[in-house]
Structures are given as C-alpha cells and as structure tokens.
Design brief:
The protein has 547 residues and is mostly beta strands. The protein is built from two helices and 31 strands. Strand 25 and strand 26 form a beta hairpin. It is globular, with a radius of gyration of 26 Å.
C-alpha cells in the first residue's frame, strides 16, 4: 500500500531514493535493468533496520550479477520484440575471469513505440485512455521512448580473506512524454498543452566495496562501501496559448559511505554498522522562445541549492532460543539535516531566504519465528519505520493543475509507521504448501497537502496565473492493512499449480481512501514439465479500483 517516496528501493546495497523523490508515481525504477538483475527480495522487520529513511513498511532490494572467479567465460545475448508497443530491445552480458580477477559487463538498448490498448473495452468506459486529442484508433500517441543501460563490475581477490569490487552503472533515457498531461483539454475540447515531457533521465553510479573475512575481537567480518550517484532530470511544458517552452532542470550528487560488521558467538548472530549520506541538489529553470531567446523562469526547488546530510547507527541481533524458536531484534538511530537557500526572494515574497530542517529518529523491531515441526511454522513481528521530509516535501514550488500552487513548509517532521505482521506456513508430505500473512500499518504524522497562506494572502501569482496556495503538512494519520495467501499444489510430478491472492485496504483517520492502494488482485498458474521443457499457463485478475 506504499509507493514512491514512501517505499525504499536499494540497488546493490545503495538506496536509490533521494531527496527529490516525489510522493506520486515515478519512472525512476525503470533505470534498474531486469537483464542485469541476479536477485530481488522484499525485506521487512529487523532486516529493514539496515536501510532506515524511507523504509516505512519494507525495502525492495535489487542485486545485479556478480563476477565469478571460476575461470569460465559466459556470454548471453537476448533480443526481444513486443507487438503491443512495437518495442525492440537488445541485451548483452558477459562474465569472464582470469586468475584472481573477475569481470561482468552488460549493455542494453531498447526502443519502445506507442502503446496500443485493447479494442474490447468491457469495463464500460469507452473514453478511458482514449481521448480524441491524443489517441487514434486505440493507439496512445507520444508514449514512445528509448533507453540505454550499461554496467561493468571488476572483482579482485586480494587475498584469501579480502576482496575488492568496483561497480559502475549508467542509464539514460530519451525524453518521456506525459500522456496524462497531454490528454488535458480546454473548455472548447482542444488540447491544453502542445508539449509536456520529462527530459532525458540520466543516472550514473559508482560503488566501491571492500569485504574482509578476517576476524577480530568485535567482528568476524566487515564490509566497507562507498558510493557516488549523479542524477539529472528535467521537466518541460508548453501550453497552446503560450509562446515559450517552460524548462526546469534538476541535478543531484549523492555520496554514500557505510561500514557494517558481523559477529557470531554461541547461539547469537549480531550485525551492526554506521554510515553517512550527503546529497547536493542544484535546480535551474528558463523560458525558451522558438527563436532561441531565453528568459527568466522560477525553479522547482530552491535556486540557491540544497545540502542534505544523513547520519546513522544501527544494530541487529538474531538469537536461537531453541531448535524451534528464533528471536530477532533491531535498533536504528538517525539524524538528518536539510539546508536550502533561495536567491530569488522577490518573486513569491517568502518570509524566509533559507530553509533548515533538522530531525532525529529512533526505530526498533522484534520478530519471533517458531518452527513447530517440519510442516508448520509461525512468524510474527513488530517494527517501526520512518521517512524524513525530503526536499520535494519541504522546498518544492509547483502547480499540478493551474488552480493550486504548492509552496515550501520548513516545519515538517518525519513520517512514522508502526507495523505488525503475522503469518504461518504449512507444507504437506506431497509438496503441497499453503501460506498466509496478515499485516497492519499505522502511519503517524503523514505528510499531506492542504490549503495554506503566505503573508496573510491565500493566493499568489505563479506561471502567469493567480493560484490558491497549498503546502505540505503533518496532518494525517492513516491505516493500511492487508492479507496475502499463497497455495502451491502438485497433483503429480509433472504438474505444479500455484495460486496467489492479495487484499489491501487503506484509509485516512477520516475514513477516506488512500490514493495508492491496489485493488484485490491475484493469479493462478499451471506449469507442466515434459522432459527438459516446461509449458506455463498463467492468468492474472484484479478487482474494481473505484474512482
């Protein structure tokens, strides 16, 4: 039930979330190329303590392929065509090694054409996604884009107990049009915008990791990680009645450093660590005429720049109380400091030229895993989470619909969550298994947009229009609960039947529905094995998502 800035995504141990992650839908996850991905997992409870800021309910962890030191070379080439959008993609990756050095290289290029929707519109909404101004015979215009991804890793075995890993990644897209803006119409039925697109989204990441298995008094092994990310994105729009194209550019440099340790003794395993993250944000803007003339434009974020510093300590302990009972707990201390500066203080007459927001957070967790026997196990956990108000919450100035304009609010505090999970797993002798999990999340001090005022006025002039003022506030309390069931059934050796069902409900304290809760959904799959071949049939379904 959480998404965007409330959902933490980590790639190769480094959080992708940054201080300009917004609360609505994002395309940032598309910079993770599935062809380079070796494993994916969702962690909750004590495990999420390691990641901290943004892990309100869980962490999505993506790990790309690691180089191997087996002295074997492997090359993979995959080309794919998708008829629904005339998409063509070419993917290549190679693993090779020599003595104590291993390499992994991957290149991916894809070109996505316009999307086509189905002709049988059984939901009885004939115009949904099929507006005249941007669709022709079920083809959704301007939804095409292209993207290139690159990755290279070098693994060096320095000794039997020490290894060094260099991880370089780069991703760049073409411009990406916003279909949900280009389909806006004026009162006369004509298109409101002639252009509305994201500029090329670029992400460069360099990770250096040093792993040691040499034990000492306070650790059996340690891991030192240093990472740098450089991200560029932009927004561009032009209304039909305007002469200029509005351009807003964001650039962010992110520096990460973490040091983590592992120690085992008797029936206890302990993991602990510390780290720091620093983010530097630059925001610029201009208005561009067709003849190339450039004029002033307001920036989305403070035009004097922003610096965000994050410091943290964490620890996790796993105790084997008996052969059947495992107890885990975790604790994390976090300090966050955000500083922004406005150079242009005249346009909005803000009563401040700087924004400073300092927050402290403490989160903890407990988990009990009870293996009753070889066929039945129970698991229950309680854990807390937090999300610091980022620059997109605190310092953003923008309008979504030309009616309201959002302005900064420096006094925001972190969002907090209390989570409870209860689940059990049953497995029979004939490999039939059934599992069910229930969770309940309470979000406190949730950041929500509300009406506001500036210098006693409830409206300001923005992008040439008088708009009502809004600002983010810690005003909301929300509840999210859900249940997940999964069945795996093997009637005979060659056939495997799998079924999953998910139900989630989310409401504010006023009993209003939360915006990003998915409807009832699930799937059923039948997998049949014939010698070395498999045939798989799967159907997915979802309930109503009422407007």
């Amino acid at each position: 039930g959480l998404e965007a800035s409330r959902l933490l995504i980590a790639l190769d141990g480094v959080p992708l979330n940054n201080t300009i992650y917004r609360s609505g839908h994002m395309q940032s996850s598309s910079t993770i190329n599935p062809f380079f991905t070796e494993s994916f997992s969702i962690v909750t409870g004590p495990s999420s303590i390691s990641f901290g800021d943004g892990a309100l309910g869980s962490v999505l962890i993506f790990n790309t392929t690691l180089p191997k030191l087996d002295r074997n070379s492997h090359c993979y080439l995959c080309q794919k065509f998708e008829s629904s959008s005339n998409t063509v993609s070419s993917n290549f990756k190679s693993l090779y090694s020599k003595e104590n050095i291993g390499f992994f290289t991957g290149v991916s290029v894809k070109s996505i054409g316009n999307l086509k929707m189905g002709k049988n519109r059984l939901h009885n909404y004939p115009d949904w996604g099929n507006e005249d101004v941007i669709s022709i015979e079920n083809e959704q215009l301007y939804t095409q884009y292209s993207q290139v991804d690159f990755i290279h890793k070098t693994l060096i075995k320095l000794s039997s107990q020490l290894s060094f890993l260099a991880n370089t990644q780069y991703s760049e897209s073409s411009k990406i049009n916003r279909f949900d803006k280009l389909n806006d119409v004026l009162d006369d039925g004509t298109a409101k915008y002639s252009s509305w697109y994201y500029g090329p989204q670029k992400r460069f990441m360099q990770i250096i990791t040093l792993r040691s298995a040499k034990s000492a008094l306070f650790y059996d092994s340690y891991n030192a990680l240093f990472a740098f990310q450089k991200i560029k994105e932009s927004r561009h729009n032009k209304k039909q009645n305007q002469d200029f194209l509005s351009n807003r550019f964001e650039a962010i440099n992110i520096y990460d450093g973490t040091l983590s340790f592992n120690k085992s003794f008797s029936k206890i395993n302990a993991k602990y660590g510390l780290g720091m993250r620093k983010q530097l944000v630059s925001s610029t803007a201009n208005n561009l005429l067709e003849n190339g003339s450039i004029f002033y434009n307001t920036t989305r974020y403070p035009d004097g720049g922003t610096v965000v510093t994050d410091l943290f300590l964490y620890s996790k302990v796993k105790m084997y109380l008996s052969e059947k009972i495992i107890f885990s707990s975790g604790l994390r201390l976090n300090y966050n400091d955000l500083n922004s500066t406005f150079i242009d203080t005249q346009t909005y007459s803000f009563p401040f030229s700087t924004i400073q927001n300092k927050t402290k957070s403490i989160v903890n967790s407990m988990l009990i895993n009870y293996h009753i026997n070889n066929h039945l196990s129970l698991k229950t956990s309680f854990y807390t989470g937090f999300r610091n108000p980022n620059l997109d919450d605190i310092g953003k100035v923008f309008s979504k619909n030309d009616t309201y304009v959002v302005i900064p609010n420096p006094s925001l505090t972190p969002e907090k969550s209390n989570n409870i999970e209860i689940g059990f797993y049953v497995k029979s002798k004939n490999n039939t298994s059934f599992s069910m999990q229930y969770f309940n999340t309470i979000i406190k001090d949730a950041i929500s947009r509300d009406l506001g005022s500036l210098n006693g006025q409830d409206s300001i002039l923005y992008d040439g229009e008088m708009m009502r003022i809004q600002m983010n506030k810690n005003i909301e309390k929300a509840y999210i609960q859900g249940i997940n069931v999964q069945l795996n059934y093997t009637p005979f050796n060659r056939l495997i039947i799998t079924s999953k069902l998910n139900y989630i409900k989310g409401e504010t304290i006023e009993k209003l529905p939360l915006a990003h809760i998915p409807p009832l959904n699930g799937n059923i799959s039948f997998k049949y094995r014939i010698n070395e071949q498999t045939i798989n049939f799967e159907t997915m379904f979802a309930g109503w998502k009422k407007i």
